[in-house]
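Team,

Forwarding the record for the chain on the shared tracking sheet. I've put the sequence and predicted structure together so nobody has to dig through attachments.
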Amino acid sequence: MSMILELLAEAFEHAKIPNSFYEAKKVISKLGLHYTKIDACPNDCMLYVGEDKDKDSCTKRKTSRWKPKKRNTIGDDVVVNKRKKIPAKVLRYFPLKPRLQRMFLSSKIVEHMRWHASESTDEGMLRHPRDSDAWKKFDLMHPQFALDPRNVRLGLATDGFNPYGNLSTNHSIWPVVLIPYNLPPWMCMKQSSFILSMIIPGKRAPGNDIDVYLQPLIEDLKELWNTGIKTFDSYGNEVFDMRAAILWTISDFPGLGTLFGWNTHTGLACLRCNFDTTPKKLVKGGKFCFISHRRWLDGRHKFRLAHSRFDGTIENRSQPMAISGHDILQQLGNVHVEFGKEPIVEERSKRQRRVDHPKVDTLQWRKKSIFFGLPYWVDNLLHHNLDVMHIEKNVCDNILFTLLIDSTNNKCKDNLKARKDLQLWGIRPDLWPDENGRYLPSIYTLSNVNKDIFLKTLKNITVPDGYSSNISRCVDVKQRKIGGLKSHDSHVLMEQILPLAIRKTLPKEVSSILIDLCSFFKQLCNKVLKIDQLVQLQDRVVLTLCHMEMLFPPSFFTVMVHLIVHLVEDAKRGGPVQYRWMYPIERYLGKLKSYVRNKAQAEGSIAEGYLAEECLTFCSRYLDGIETVFNRLRRVDDEPSIGSCIVSTLFPSIGKAVGGFTYFTLSEKEKLQAHRHILTNSAIVDPFLQ
């Protein structure tokens, strides 16, 4: 790198280019682009900071802070390598305060940091988190914070990924990402706006001990809330006390247990229902099912008394009450957990006796989350978001594999065990198996002919470039199977393709219910939500889930299917799902994964790659006249060029050809349909239709 800098300095004598890599790093450090290394216990018990900074072993299990030194054998002598001590585990923390200060120093972004207070929000529409109930309640509870629109509101997202691909299947790195919601919709969810807060190292996932690693971030957030930090506003040309707060966290459903401490593997897995539910475990299936959606119906609805068509009981309960932060604190009163994991078997000494520690997995609350250490957290209306991305993915898998009845796939919910559970519950006798284990197909079971029609429809569908991946590669028509669907493939299937494929292959009483479910997800994922329509949407989805209970076996209703009933309420509290789901976070994790050049130091490679990207992003804001990450053309650029587009023409040249093309002749009916489409969708024709 130093040689390249020397070459550039000779080529551009007028430019002030550093002479060495060391000097270049010094220039970058003045921008506040740095991170700190904090040694951690290899068993996730503690961080070596503060009073514990100089300790050599863990205070809980006396585990050494350092990696064991290598011993080399020379003849009959054993020589110990006297190199510098290497910590066994290192947390890389990116300080938050200088990064927030730099956002207000940048003249290209500081004006957008107060965008949320510049427009009216009393339109009955949800376009941004600032329109949500959680944002408004936060302003109401903390008026002093809301008085200055420059105070930063953040969302915290995290998930784990394996940086080695197929080379290692048991390594998990957990980056923690912060999202600044002060920015307008076209900026806040861009990767260039994300703030990487820390990189929690592997090899094992932190699990319940993630609070140990979040301590430096929580300390910074406490200081930013209580006293703030002096920050120069380049737009107002003044110095002010900047404060910051976390509105909510974002992760997949297992991550809810990691961040929030709620056990998601029991019959009480739904945090929104909390303890106000009755766990139901399938005897033959061996798993919990989550039904009884009749609770959300009107108290006088006829489905509440139709016990034979549901689970054999009459439903008299009302829907669960919303749980506040104060209610959660009362439930956490007697929960005391010690952090740390058991040492890995290979690292345990032969003489070391294994100590059996009490397991906390049997408890519903596994810990008191470190976020409750923030002064404002208990008053937040929405603490953790339900991820629509993974919910939609799991629901789509349940539907596809149940319709296709693939007995070799564990995701198929209609099998012999499911039919035996129906027999034990004493409901739907027409679906019970006989003594030989044979049973009749259900109304939702596709015949081989309908399977072929269904799969060929999915196989032959083509979509515009960049709209989705090639879904046809996941369809095997010969073996009548579907596999390898990604999360976004399931998103496109549920909202666009599945209603078309099942319309002619399933009976009307089944297809209409599934189409209603697909329509629910499509409306929920709109970029703009109308508050009055959300009430109607909630009533519709409850009725849809009740109809599904009458069609599908109880094994179909996993916790991910049950969480559908809470998504509308979360939308009211948090705003559109595009700001609270995992799609942008998962893509960003893929970008961080690409930074791993040195496989032996994956976390260090990610940290250095992020710093380089952060420096380029910061400098790109000030570059004009050249292509940067902020002004480059999109992958799918359908905007017409100024020179070729004539507004007065009936067919403006919008878009560009991609791939091959074919010629075909339109029938008379197709010509008539095309003619009508042009007349009804062309703005030039509108004056003549009035």
